[in-house]
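Late entry, evening session. Most of the bench is empty. Finally got around to the prediction I had been postponing all week. Sequence below, unchanged from the version circulated by S.P.
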Amino acid sequence: MEMSCENDLFCGVNNASGKSPDEMTDLEKKHTPVIEAPDKVKAGEYFEVKVSTGVYMAHPNEYGHYFGWIEIYLDDTPLGRVELQPVMSSPSVTFKVSATHSHEGKRRLRALAFCNLHGVWEGEKEIEVE
C-alpha cells in the first residue's frame, strides 16, 4: 500500500519558498523560519546568521504548542542546532558560522524549525561565498 504525504505536516519538510508573505497561508506565516545574514561572505571567515520564527504572524509558544529546535545548514552541511523551551516568545537564534566546507559561488542557507504540532518548516536565503 503506497502512502501519500499530501496534507501530512509530519511527512517531510514543509516549505513556502517562492511565496511572498501575502501569498502564504496563516499556517505558513506562523511556521516559516526567516533568515537574516549577509548577502556575501568570505570562505573561512565567520559571519552571523539570525533565524527568527513568528516573523510574518505570531506563533503560540506554550507547553502544548511550541518550537522545539532550530537548525541551520549551508546547502546540506549542518552548521548549528539550538534546542528551545516551550515558553519562549517567537524564538530567534543567532549563530556565528563560517563557510569552510563550501566552494565559492552561490550557496543556500537553510533554516529548519520544528513545531511539535505542525512538523518541520524550512526557510532559505541565497548567499554568495567568495
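Two things to note before I forget:
Residues 71 and 81 are 4 Å apart (CA to CA).
Residues 25-129 form a domain with the Immunoglobulin-like fold (CATH 2.60.40.730).
Will write this up properly tomorrow.
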